[in-house]
Amino acid sequence: MQNILGVHTGSDMPLDQTINNQINLAGEEITDASVWIKKTHDPASSPGGAVIHKSNKIICIVRNPFDTIISSLNLISGDHSGQLNEDLQKDIPAFWQAFVREKTNNFKDFHSFVLLEAMEHVPVHLMRYEDLLIRPQETLEDLFCFVMGKKSVEGLNIQKRIKAAVEMGHKSTQAYSMKVDMEEAGQKKKTVFNRNISKYTEE
After folding, report:
1. Given this model, what pLDDT does residue 92 score?
2. With 60 as the cut, is the pLDDT of residue 163 above it?
3. Which one of 18, 56, 106, 161 has the fewest CB atoms closer than 10 angstroms to its CB?
């Protein structure tokens, strides 16, 4: 959204706890009226404590929980976009089982809040993280219809800006700037869904 609008977005992530060597967002830790759009973990827990905001609209992004839980574990280690090499069931079984239960309860509380409380007071737009990767143009157009209060963005300048961002691919929407560029390092980043499912037991 920041790249499409050309306006910095805010976040309640404290600067002293941002992800090591990765964050490159000018609005980090800014949650006042100087930013129109703010990323928050509210009402879920956040490093340093989530900030409770007043808002006119809410965009709620949901993601496959198998991948989200691993991403949360990566966040603790300081690398939100990395991949764990540990055999979680073998190396840290007690911690892993407790972590999964904790995060599952967090997700339940968060989505219950959005669906049962927030929707009663402000408009809420639900979108899937996976759709942003699979069909970005359509997903972002739907999002900006919600943001702008339009039934369609067909023919509007914002549609052109979305198209330009989508055509730029990963570099346009990259929130995390790694110290070593994966392409320069000869690595190709693949979009794989459910790649973490093997880390879980049937239970």
Report:
1. 81
2. yes
3. 56
State whether residue 61 is helix, strand or coil: strand
pLDDT band at 19, cuts 50/70/90? low
pTM of the model: 0.76
- Rg of the chain over CA atoms, in angstroms? 18
- Helix, strand, coil percent values for the chain (each to nearest 5): 45, 10, 50
Enclosing domain of residue 149: 2-199
Q: Which is nearest to 17 in space by CA: 32, 29, 9?
A: 29
Q: Would you state the pLDDT for residue 17?
A: 62
The one-letter amino acid code at 172 reads S
Q: Mark out the alpha helices in the chain (DSSP H runs).
A: 2-5, 65-77, 88-91, 93-116, 129-134, 136-148, 157-168, 170-173
**Structural domains of the chain, count:** 1
The per-residue pLDDT for range 97-141, each reduced to its tens digit, is 999 999 999 889 888 988 998 899 999 999 999 999 999 999 999
| Residue 139 C-alpha from the chain's centroid | 14
